[in-house]
Design goal:
The complex is a heterodimer.
Chain A (H helix, E strand, L loop, with lengths): L13 E3 L1 H14 L4 H8 L3 H8 L6 H11 L7 E3 L12 E5 L8 H20 L2
Antiparallel strand pairs in A: 1-2
Chain B lengths: L6 H15 L10 H8 L3 E3 L7 H10 L6 E6 L2 E6 L5 H16 L7 H6 L14
Parallel strand pairs in B: 1-3
Antiparallel strand pairs in B: 2-3
Classes of the chains: A mainly alpha, B alpha+beta.
């Protein structure tokens, strides 16, 4: 998933902080009170591309240019030197739920769900 | 439920766009796992989840109606866990619902806030993990 240098790869002299760029883009979006659909409409970058970016995939250069032009973000600000480390994601599991249940969860089900969420979070950690 | 004005038109245009990317017409069946792969969102059935044997057993065999699907976040990255004990049509609906959250980039909600949003989790007091 991540395209950063892996052990055994040739070491590159710099890298693009796509996560930082995405966070800056999100800030611009929020300050303009827009949803992502409107970002897609304003830039021509598809909704699925924006979702893939959130998943850690890098945008192609045309998509990046469109997002930078639309937002006014300077892409150069996110070019990092090889020595700079990638920031760690916040160590907090967050969720959205879809529980199609018409009653409250039983305490047993809530406990079971806790266990599921923690296991899923560990899985996400391992994938990085 | 009242939808925001313009939402249906937006949803239709998103559906049209994404179906086009997948090479599907408006009435073609949509395989949620195909869509998930397209969006790079990992999807795990409960039976594939490791390290949660008791919870999986409970939600699979004791009270399977208590859990449909959930999106778990680490930073912005999301992973979907769903109840693969449910019937196929229901599973497709559950997973596609979560994928729609992903396509609309709905932000995560801490669990104690989800309770306030009325999803029915009122008994849990999950502390942040990590």
């Amino acid at each position: 998933m991540q395209d950063r240098n892996r052990p055994g790869d040739a070491v590159k002299s710099g890298w693009f902080d796509a996560d930082g760029f995405y966070a800056a883009l999100d800030s611009v979006r929020q300050s303009r009170r827009l949803n992502w659909k409107q970002v897609s409409g304003g830039t021509g970058v598809s909704a699925s591309t924006l979702t893939r970016m959130a998943q850690g995939k890098r945008p192609d250069v045309d998509g990046l240019a469109a997002l930078a032009a639309w937002s006014g973000i300077d892409v150069d600000d996110f070019v990092r030197s090889a020595a700079e480390d990638r920031p760690e994601p916040e160590p907090l599991a967050k969720i959205t739920t879809y529980l199609r249940s018409d009653r409250n969860l039983s305490p047993q089900a809530a406990t079971a769900l806790d266990e599921i969420i923690k296991a899923a979070y560990r899985q996400l950690q391992e994938q990085e | 439920m009242t939808l925001r004005r313009g939402f249906k038109a937006e949803a239709n245009s998103t559906a049209d766009e994404v179906r086009g990317e997948l090479g599907l017409g408006f009435l073609d069946p949509l395989d949620p796992l195909h869509l998930a792969a397209h969006l790079v969102i990992p999807v795990l059935g409960l039976s594939e989840l490791t390290g949660a044997a008791q919870g999986v057993e409970y939600l699979t065999h004791v009270e399977p109606s208590a859990f449909s699907a959930i999106t778990v976040f680490r930073g912005r990255r999301r992973l979907i866990v769903h109840n693969d004990e449910h019937a196929l049509g229901r599973r497709n609906s559950n997973v596609t619902h979560e994928l729609a959250h992903g396509l609309l980039l709905h932000p995560p909600t801490p669990r104690w806030m989800t309770a306030a949003a009325g999803t029915g989790i009122k008994t849990s007091k999950t502390k942040p993990t990590g």
